[in-house]
Amino acid sequence: MKQSLGILAAILVSALTACGAPPPNETPEPLGEESSALVSCSTECPSGPSLSCWGNACSAANNAYVQCDGVYQYCATTPPPLDCSYSQEACLSVLGTSCSPPGSRRKCCIQNEPIGNCQCTTRNVWTCTVPHEDP
User: Fold this and answer.
1) What keywords are assigned to this protein (predicted)?
2) CB-count burial class (<10 Å; 0-12, 13-18, 19+) for 112
């Protein structure tokens, strides 16, 4: 009986080895794996839109810059002058369009003058007010 159990064990080991299982007392080698994940950094800028970037490594300083993989983006120090010759700068064109982040502000044009003011609402749309002149 012991001899038939030994033969049965030998057949079983041979069958498992033929099916791709590692032989007893031998562990499979781990497969070489490499993984990387992109990270994102962003910052709010006081005088313009927020900045963001994606990369393998990043850093950010509020109201100053973002950096991804050694490439820096800096916040504008002063807002660019408003060019009222473009129709998209008119308060009526800005009103109701999407914006980010909520609470940010911008100027808009009324009759070719940059005298309107807009604020980004919590619903991420611009709402604009215009100065009122008494007749």
Assistant:
1) Signal
2) exposed
The CA distance from 74 to 109, in Å, is 27
- Rounded to 10 degrees, the C-alpha dihedral 51/104/127/123 comes to 70
| Sequential pLDDT tens for the chain (135 residues) | 555 545 545 555 555 555 555 555 655 555 655 556 889 999 888 766 788 999 999 998 888 889 999 888 888 776 677 889 988 899 999 999 998 888 888 999 998 899 999 999 999 999 998 766 655
pTM of the predicted structure, to 2 decimals: 0.41
